[in-house]
Design goal:
The protein has about 280 residues and is mostly beta strands. It is built from 1 helix and 21 strands. A hairpin with a 3-residue loop joins strand 15 and strand 16.
Length: about 280
């Protein structure tokens, strides 16, 4: 495996051993700004506040028209680790299951027989019960109708929240696009007759990068190490790269935003070297 060395200038000597430059990693679900762009709500059974199934740009909400389901985006109770100040909020109190799904025109292009990963953040927002949901990576033949080519579901049971500042959890679904699939989207299904709300945000659909590269950016009090989001690689550190037995996994939280993983690493007096490895 070819490697290059990236050196961070400044008083702190940080370096990264990285694999060769990666293919472009990007979120294929490009119209994903709705949660951060709108504060309207959709409550058909109550009729207040006013709203519609498309109050979130790029998404469609389906609730029982006669029930008291509730969905939309809001700024209250927002955890600090969200991408923006708003989040998707959904429950279905009575009647049919509640749905939040990618609008047909916002489905992202995919190629059959390639592996794709759906990343997202979720958290229960009930202080009295667990929040249940099914999140699916759904395959479509086109952007014109709802006749899908299958889906890869993930069943979620999110614990009771103790504080509105409880962190969001990162989840992912990886699957191979089936024959006839040309587009992909997201579907979140909530059980009927369920009053335990769910927060969701930052949906990403991306192809698994064949190669990745590691970058370093110096901030005021720390360095940010980042690389394309993927399931194979882990970040390791060493004080002397000549000592091959000195590599250890970095014991810092790996955060994800969009198509990028990153770690905040505090500035130190001694040089540290970093690399990405794919364990066997």
């Amino acid at each position: 495996m070819s490697r290059s060395v990236l050196v961070l200038s400044g008083s702190l000597a940080l370096a990264a051993l990285a694999v060769a430059p990666s293919a472009l990693a990007q979120n294929l679900l490009t119209d994903n700004a709705g949660f951060e762009a709108n504060t309207a709500y959709y409550t058909p059974g109550w009729g207040w506040p006013d709203g519609s199934p498309d109050v979130l740009p790029g998404w469609i909400i389906t609730l029982d028209a006669d029930g008291d389901g509730y969905a939309g985006a809001g700024t209250n109770q927002s955890p600090q680790d969200l991408q923006g100040t708003h989040f998707g909020y959904l429950y279905s109190g009575t009647g049919a299951p509640g749905l939040l799904e990618t609008a047909p025109a916002s489905r992202c292009p995919v190629e059959a027989d390639m592996t794709y990963t759906l990343w997202f953040l979720a958290r229960g927002d009930s202080s009295w019960g667990e929040a249940l949901a099914t999140v699916s990576l759904v395959w479509y033949p086109n952007q014109d109708n709802d006749n899908d080519k299958g889906e890869a579901p993930l069943e979620l049971t999110l614990p009771v929240r103790f504080s509105t500042n409880d962190p969001m959890q990162t989840f992912h679904i990886s699957a191979v696009a089936p024959s006839g699939a040309h587009y992909a989207g997201v579907r979140v299904t909530r059980p009927a007759d369920n009053y335990d709300p769910l927060l969701v945000d930052d949906f990403v659909i991306m192809a698994e990068p064949a190669q990745v590269s590691l970058s370093i950016k110096k901030e005021t009090s720390h360095a940010v190490l980042s690389w394309p989001r993927n399931l194979k690689h882990q970040l390791e550190e060493n004080s002397n790269p000549a000592i091959t037995s000195g590599w250890n996994q970095v014991n810092k939280p790996v955060k994800g935003i969009g198509a990028t993983n990153y770690v905040d690493y505090p500035l130190t007096e001694r040089a540290r070297f970093f690399r990405l490895v794919a364990p066997d």
